[in-house]
Backbone:
């Protein structure tokens, strides 16, 4: 069962592979926005994992975040997700990220509950 208020927190240490320069989303060796976004989304996935029914999964449908402060290589980052709204199969999360010095990002993330087999079959059908 998926319950409003469910939370998850994930952590990472910024490495060269997690920088904007490595992702191609910038030229500097600081924590890349794509990686911050992915850590936030991963926290949301993990927050509801135990509440999914058999054969059910979720897919990300919207991510609206700001990346407010740079984090250099070697620093620790924590992303948090809290489920704040459930509208049938649509789930809305409040997501935040911080490093050892304070907040670095925030926003919302939406996921949609799906049946994995049906979803994958529809995706494969696009091949013709």
Residues:
């Amino acid at each position: 069962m998926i319950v409003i208020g469910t939370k998850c927190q994930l952590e990472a240490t910024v490495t060269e592979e997690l920088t904007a320069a490595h992702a191609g989303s910038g030229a500097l060796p600081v924590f890349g926005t794509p990686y911050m976004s992915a850590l936030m989304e991963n926290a949301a996935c993990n927050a509801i994992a135990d509440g999914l029914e058999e054969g059910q999964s979720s897919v990300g449908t919207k991510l609206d975040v700001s990346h407010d402060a740079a984090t250099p290589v070697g620093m620790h980052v924590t992303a948090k997700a809290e489920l704040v709204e459930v509208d049938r199969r649509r789930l809305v999360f409040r997501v935040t990220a911080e490093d050892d010095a304070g907040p670095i990002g925030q926003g919302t993330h939406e996921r949609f509950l799906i049946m994995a087999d049906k979803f994958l079959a529809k995706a494969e059908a696009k091949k013709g």
